[in-house]
Amino acid sequence: MTDSLQYSADGPILVAGGYGTVGSALTALLAPDFPLLLTGRTPERGNELASRHGASVRRWDLLDPTPFDASVRAVVSTVNDPHDRVLSAAVEAGIPYVDITRWTSRVARAATLAGQKSPSAPVYLSSGWMGGVTNVVAAALAEELGGASTIDVSIRYDVNDIAGLDSVDFIDRLGQDFEVMQQGNPITVSPLTDTRWVDFPGSRTKVGRIDTPEQFTFPMTLGAETASTRIGFSSHASTTALLAAKKVGLFRWGRGDRFTPLRRGLLYSPGKGGSAQVRIDVTGPSGTTSATIVDPQGQAHLTAVGGALAVRQALADDAQPGVTFPESLPNPRRTVSELESFGVAVLRA
User: Where are the alpha helices (DSSP H) in 128-247?
Assistant: First the structure.
């Protein structure tokens, strides 16, 4: 299994999973400015999207050992890459790489793998919640305060959002404890515990712990002594059902494939559309401040926005080689100001 990518300054941007739910949204954002190559397991599913945006589409099944080769300008991954094929091929070829899909353990693995390969191009692991948009806004708030000692992220997940089944992939991790930093010390917490009520625009939502990559990176990148992320749902019934399932141990004894429909059925009920909302509260040397990210086009669009911003950063003239997280990029407040052009609001309390 020897994939071969080559860097081409005039080549397309390769979007792995470019016709999936998030990939399609990202394709629409990038197509006006860049030629695109969309890849996936069943390229015929991407033909109409590719035709609409003047892109090309090819098969690259990451579970099929058949080698893949292409000449491209940059690579962005919107799919699960269990064997790090996309990452390895891009880094070995010296091609700018962006990833917006990894969970915490896989972010750590990707950072380690990429670091061992001494990348000669940018490697942006933008897998914080919603393509790293949360990370960038948190960094901007920390910059205002002269630093961040505590960062609390609260997510309001709209169960009516237009989303693919992979959007609730996190539900399969609700039976796994995870580590976070609290007051400068690592502690182990359980998902959906330590609940609290949080105010969002037009609603008050009960949120509980969830494992996300920004909790892993914020202590290292922003120096936060405490980093926490919690999630709640627009449907109180969904919140109640998940908390009850957690209490009876469903996510531990029902981990196998046999129970996948039951686990995901607690949350997956895509509708005609919903609003993605994320509240970030930061405490630093100059006090406490907060902001709420609101994308009326939903979570897939907001994740794609994070990916589009990361791609532009990776291709910037001043981009530096090596592994970088979204909150480490220069001028986070300028990046936040760009969100408005994508229809994303950042509301200040």
Answer: 133-145, 213-221, 236-247
CA angle (85, 88, 94) in 5-degree steps:
140
Checking if the pLDDT of 204 tops 90, the result is yes
Whose tokens are 């086009």? That residue is: 297
Considering only CA atoms, which of 81, 125, 95 is closest in space to residue 12?
95
Predicted pLDDT of residue 37: 98
pLDDT tens-digit map of 70-106: 999 999 999 989 899 999 999 999 999 999 989 999 9
Nearest residue to 73 (alpha-carbon basis) of 319, 288, 297:
319
In this prediction, residue 247 carries a pLDDT of 75
47-77 per-position pLDDT tens digit? 999 999 999 999 999 999 999 999 999 999 9
β-strands 4-7, 69-72 pairing: parallel
Helix, strand or coil, per DSSP, at residue 5: strand
> Looking at the whole model, is its pTM more than 0.85?
yes
Nearest C-alpha neighbor of 205 from the set 127, 275, 298, 302: 275
Provide the 8-state DSSP code for 12.
Answer: P
DSSP state of 319: P
Give the C-alpha separation, 251 to 191, whole Å.
10
Pairing state between β 150-157 and 226-233: parallel
**Which residue carries 């607690």 as its tokens?**
266
Assigned token pair, 102: 């990894």
> What residues are paired with 69 via a beta bridge?
4
Q: Which residue is associated with the tokens 């309001």? A: 156
Query: For tokens 């790489």, what's the residue?
Result: 97
Closest CA to 107 of 133, 77, 136, 141: 77
Residues 131-158, mean pLDDT to the nearest whole number: 97
- Indicate the residue type of 345: A
Mean pLDDT over 146-156 rounds to: 97
**Strand 276-284, strand 287-295: pairing:** antiparallel
